[in-house]
Amino acid sequence: MSASPRTADTSSQPLSGTECSISAGPYTATIASIGATLRSLRYDGRDLVVPFDADEVRPVFRGAVLAPWPNRVVDGRYSFAGQDHLLALSEPERGHALHGLVAWADFAVAERADDRVVLTTTIPAQLGYPFRVEVAVTHQVDEQGLHTTITGTNTGPDAAPWGTGPHPYLVAGPGHVDDWTLHLPAQQVLEVTPDRLVPTALSPVADVDDGVFDLRVPERIGSRFIDHAFTGFDRDADGTATVRVTAADGSGVRMTFGPECPWVQVHTADHVVPEYHRVGLAVEPMTCAPDAFNAGAERGLLVVEPGESATASWTITAV
Hints:
It contains 1 helix and 27 strands. It has about 325 residues and is mainly beta. The chain has one domain (about 20-319): Beta-galactosidase, Chain A, domain 5, CATH 2.70.98. The strands form 7 sheets. The chain has a 9-stranded antiparallel β-sheet, with no helix packed on it. Strands 16-25-24-21-18-19 form a 6-stranded antiparallel β-sheet, with no helix packed on it. It has a 4-stranded antiparallel β-sheet with strand order 1-2-3-4, with no helix packed on it. The relative contact order is 0.17.
């Protein structure tokens, strides 16, 4: 009589996965292994992102890693290297493939220190994405904030399409999104259809809806609705761009990212669930635009050759 197969005992593991707490100076962060997720980030006890409980199924992609694409692949369909592919429609209400393939993967903890954790997983070749990519996510805190780096390494035999980004909801201070001021120094916004958020045209921010997306000069967010991707950022000499959201008292949070992330998705977190509604501002640096699997290199799609890697990073800092 054969023995029953053994499985790992996860009965004591929180629903969000293995918990890794890191800290340095005034910063503390909690990383959950499901999705290599940033579950909480605090500065001197003040939340910089909308947190969630360890034994809670992560709501609305809070803090998740998005790969091998961020945002949407429209209709779940794309062509690559002369082959047509169909992805599972993980956003069924709009009929798209949403936020990649690792957001619900249970990453392994590869390295761990007081101020740093490295988590890894492998995207296996599968229907819709017949490419094998190893994903490594490093979260590290220091006196300047939380630094996150994502590296995708192609371990398969064929070139792979690739894009990545994070999904934190930033918290400026007390109140809701309406009460905060946003500085978004982007020149262009990707317009989308109102129902399915399908990209239509890339336009100057001043030319769309009477300039509602023109936040190159900081403005109070108020009641404006944003669920759009932006590009054409003003950058420092080293290529760093900064998005900043602040409360009435001047405190807040900023997100910085390098030239490897030419796009940022911003969402005012409008939601039918009251406790989710406009409680944080999603700021998602991305290596490519929404639906880049169809738009191609023009919208930032990366092609990672066998044995090669692509890396992107960003930092969240208290203001």
